Amino acid sequence: MTEVYVAGVGEIPCKPSYTQDFREMLFKAFKNCLEDSESEVSEIDAVVASGLDFFEGISITDSYTPDQVGGRLKFNTLVSNDSLNAFIHAYMLIKTGWFKNVLVTAYAKSSNILNYGEILLNTWDPHLIRPLLIHHFSIAALDAQAFLSRRNGEPRDLSIVAAKNIRNALRNSAAAYGADIGIEKIESEEFVSEPLRRSHVARLCDYASVVLLSSDNRSAKAVVKGVGFAHGSHSSDLSERVFGKFAWVRPAVSKALPGSLRRVVEFVEVSEPFASTELMVLDELGVYDGDVLKGVRGGDFMFDGALPVNPSGGCIGMGYPLNAAGLQRVVQAVKLLRMGRWSGCLVASVDGEVVDGGSVVVLSAG
């Protein structure tokens, strides 16, 4: 069976805003990836892009990306989903045996979106649900409160997660929002929608990243050990939603991480638009032996803890790049593996801020 390796990664740092066009941003990330993989443009067989016309305001978004990443006259496809799902699509293309080197691309130009909250509200039913919502934060807050109630948690647990990630981001040169912040400082902030406070919500950023997957292990930076994705809810009808629980995680992780691989996971990278997202994913992953909330309070998920979670800073510390969040997490995971401190990890990413669906990838050091 064909093995799949991460041959190289490239990114540009997260920033609240870039003056460059998204094409220039993507080109810079692509150049960094080529240098990292020591590859030539001619060696790329296919390009898998992650993009959402909904955020871009233009149709067929990926038609604007191939020229910047060496994809002209080559196989191109768009995954209108989180970029970790695009990563899995590229993985499957290599598994067919028809492709040797496949590029995965993702970017976010959030600074161009002037009415982000209103745009997200347009994803809900215009007659039954949208009139009830002031902001999509209210759905995330219901999820957070339901999770805390079900697991006997406290709102302070969310502040512990947020403070951890913001401080972790200080170590990451690609992060936009790292700071030396304490739990009490976050606890004194205003609510955006109770129990979510301002720092519990990841701030948007501009960002671009490119990952090269290959069947050739000569330049391997990491090995893809398993992948999985699933949907927990197939409807936007809130009456069918199970609040406070991600039903997608267990089916996805069961595909990506069979029991024999559990020992490989030494840290976890999760895309977390909200602090509660990280806890809800962790609660279902099954990679931590113990109660997740007790682990949070005991420091087990800190950078130096028993199972570091988002040692890169996560989306709360780095910035939330919309659908590029999944690939952002992959790039950070590969960078961390190359430090030599850890030998394996799990990457998980939700399909959207308030979506019950997502993807899981397991990586080991190359």
From TrEMBL:
**Record keywords, A-Z:** Acyltransferase, Isoprene biosynthesis, Transferase
- The top EC class is transferase
Q: Which SUPFAM superfamilies match?
A: Thiolase-like
A Pfam family found in this protein is Thiolase_C_1
Q: What are the Thiolase C-terminal domain coordinates in residue numbering?
A: 263-338
InterPro entries xref list: Thiolase-like, Thiolase_C_2
Which Gene Ontology molecular-function terms are recorded? acetyl-CoA C-acetyltransferase activity
GO aspect biological process, one term: isoprenoid biosynthetic process
Q: Which residues cross the membrane?
A: none
The Enzyme Commission number assigned here is 2.3.1.9
Q: Which domain of life is it from?
A: Archaea
Keyword Transferase listed: yes
Entry protein name: Acetyl-CoA C-acetyltransferase
Q: Which organism is it from?
A: Caldiarchaeum subterraneum
